[in-house]
Amino acid sequence: MLDQRYRWKNKKIREHVAVIDGKLAPTLLLKNAMYLNQILKKWIKAHIWIFEDRIVYVGDNLPDDTRNCEIVDCSSYFLVPGYIEPHVHPSQLYNPHSFAQYASQSGTTTLINDNLTLALHLDKKKAFSFISELRNLPVSMYWWCRFDPQTEIKDEEMIFSHANIKSWLEHDAVLQGGELTGWPKLLDGDDLMLHWIQEAKRMRKQIEGHFPGASEKTLAKLMLLGADCDHESMTGKDVLTRLLQGYTTSLRYSSIRPDLPTILDEIHELGIDQYDQLFFTTDGSPPSFYEQGITDNLIRIAIEKGVPIVDAYNMGTINIAKYYNIDYLHGNIATGRVANINFLTAEDNPSPVSVLAKGKWVKKAHALVESFPTVQWENHDISKLELDWNLTIDDLQFSMPFGMEMVNSVIMKPFSVTKDASSNQLATSHDESFLMLVDRKGKWRVNTIIKGFANHVSGIASSYSGTGDIILIGKSKEDMLLAFNRMKELGGGIVLTENNQVIHEVPLELLGQMSVKPVEELITEEKQLTFFLRERGYKFDDPIYTLLFLSSTHLPYIRITPKGIYDVMNKIVLFPSIMR
């Protein structure tokens, strides 16, 4: 990894200096550029020299040598830095490569990614080789280091071992520890987690919280324990409380928490008019949420809500870069920075017509430029889900006295089961369905009833889940088995069945979690799935997050996990999983 430690080798840096001396020509010259200078917080006209992937000069001078240099007159554009998304969950049906390419088209050229899928499903060596290959993309990709799996799994101490965490934290592409979904354990005295936080701090890396609904005292305790930022503000008051406790605060606009417009109104009502400790995130939403853009859409919302234009751009660029100590590379247009630049038609229109990423055109005059190399997935053990076991009707026995009732897309509470679940079919006159979580290796299962999911979904199987295990939901055991078998044939995916027929499927050929398709195609597939589910009685905001969070113990009140039915508030397994 030492050969990747430095962004540019000495020889390359000498070439950058040689461009200034006129001994080498820039590879790209942006003439007469009106660009956002975020130090002065003003728009300034200048010439911008770029050599390969680096800005080597910004100012009034033109280079002496322009041989073989591409020259672009920027008189009709406003230039801003490439946007940064600091909180990416890069396996929400899409994969890190496909999401990065899609994000670049709307100007988001730096991504800071959750490593949970890699940590759960790949050994450390393969995960790091994958991260290394992604360095070849035009976008800049960084990572988190998770300290917990946000559920109860059987081999947590092996996957989240001290050796693994230490290796992830030491990786130069990792910028932070967290997000801390397991913070209650930290408060309860988990000294190993506290040690990892201390190690992150020693390495000058940040700690990302996950503190929905936390009180002022709880936030103060977590700040003392090492948290730096939190993205779980749902109101303007939440933002103010976090700022007063010293947090950098990420303002969220996501599929299940589209809070940003309300938060901005409320912080303005509270008199907050300083934005340097604030930035944006979309918090890893499903594909369809990104039809209107990514960070560019959040900047647009902020401008519409009265945030000064320069501050709105800063919240999607330099504020994030400064927080993560990468502003010497990203977040502004200045000498020495990576050449990530968005070309806008107006100051208040953050969606770019052209995009440079690492000095390469990834979008030019509204058109996609094919500059993303393909990923050799198989080299990193990222392949189809291969299940060497079968599910039978005998596995579909549901006798548990209570089940999980949906409060919204992701919150579940316990309820007493009153319907007879011994038959192969449940009536469609009510909204109770069979629910099963089964080990991807076929070793265990957990069976219960879910209330509120839908009253006419006959069968759905999903390898997409918080743990990577298989979810089955439905009214008909036969259709649930059909959905499972089709999902198995696909090598992973989400399959919806009815009347002994497959009516919709979303193949997820990468670890059973991610698709190889472009995000644009996934948007269509996801929207069609949501349409079919709503047509059959699903009434909440986001079925993709419902599947993802069924096992997530960072949310109340009851969860279905690999260890069994889990009471989040009391931290106990109520009914253990059954060995097959």
UniProtKB/TrEMBL annotation:
Residues 78-362 form the Amidohydrolase-related domain. It catalyses: adenine + H2O + H(+) = hypoxanthine + NH4(+). Keywords: Hydrolase. One of its GO terms (molecular function) is adenine deaminase activity. Residues 424-570 form the Adenine deaminase C-terminal domain. Its EC number is 3.5.4.2. It comes from the Bacteria. Belongs to the metallo-dependent hydrolases superfamily. Adenine deaminase family. This is adenine deaminase.
